[in-house]
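Reading a protein record of the kind used here takes only a little practice. These numbers are not coordinates but entries in a learned vocabulary of local backbone shapes. Here is one such record, which you should read through line by line.
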Amino acid sequence: MTPPLLPSEILRRVVRVSMFDGYSVLLVAGACALASATSREVFASVIGLLVAGAGAMEIHGAGLLRAGERRAMRWLFWSHLQIGASMMVYVAVRLSNPEIESLRRVVTPELAAQIEEAGLSVDQFLLGMMRIVYFSLVAATVLYQGGMTFYYLRRRAAVEAALAGDDPP
């Protein structure tokens, strides 16, 4: 059985995880915001920028941890809350105003025939698929952002102990 990690090691791991996660979120969300902006999707661009900003918040929190600031954990916590809230707003708006015009173009005549054979209209099928995709996005967001929030909350006491210099000899 391995001994529990020292608070200083937990602090190093939290900094490493938050830097990796923050840069990943910043890069992916920034790329999505840019792609949305090039296709003139203003709402999606704004959401992408909000999520990218949350990635920057997480990177800032990691920097504060490296500097020994106790308030850093709040930055890490709030960054994931911002991502989750932004994604929920995005999904709510997209589901309340479904836009399937662009999706109709990808339905081939063969696919349309199969859809109608199943007893659905093409629009019903596209709306159903859209709901599946967006509810999957909600599930992934809740699992990941909730998991990261839980990760930071569970390590808060150890990080504070490491910042206070309370490692045992």
Q: What stands out?
A: The chain has a mean pLDDT of 93. Residues 7-163 form one domain.
